[in-house]
Design goal:
Oligomer: single chain
Low-confidence stretches: none
Distance between the termini: 41 Å
Helix content: over 70%
Strand content: under 5%
Shape: extended
Structural class: mainly alpha
Number of helices: 5
Mean pLDDT: 93
Strand order of the largest sheet: 1-2
Length: about 100
């Protein structure tokens, strides 16, 4: 039962956050620094997530197959590969390194 309470509270919190966003005055949203922040914040959050998931194991920094896959994805991005191909290259390199190592 506790899980459903947590799901309900989370759903209500998400709805309240969305409603609060709709109540922000248009004048605040038109400010240049707010627009820059709105453009850069998702990129920064995604970069932090990739860094944390790609190079961390609990509280330790590690270099393993995930780092190799991330490096391969960067190379594919620099080669201007389509997104699905970038993901496939990252998955394939990660799986290959894991197969070779252990």
């Amino acid at each position: 039962m506790g899980v459903w309470i947590a799901v309900g509270v989370t759903a209500l919190g998400c709805y309240a956050t969305k409603l609060l966003g709709l109540c922000v005055p248009q004048g605040l949203l038109d400010r240049p620094w707010v627009q820059r922040l709105a453009a850069l914040l998702p990129v920064a959050l995604l970069a932090a997530l990739v860094g944390q998931q790609g190079f961390a194991d609990g509280t330790h920094v590690v270099l393993d197959a995930r780092a190799a896959g991330l490096g391969a994805a960067v190379v594919a991005l620099l080669a201007r590969a389509p997104f699905l191909l970038v993901v496939a290259v990252a998955v394939g390199v990660t799986a290959g390194v894991r197969m070779l190592v252990g």
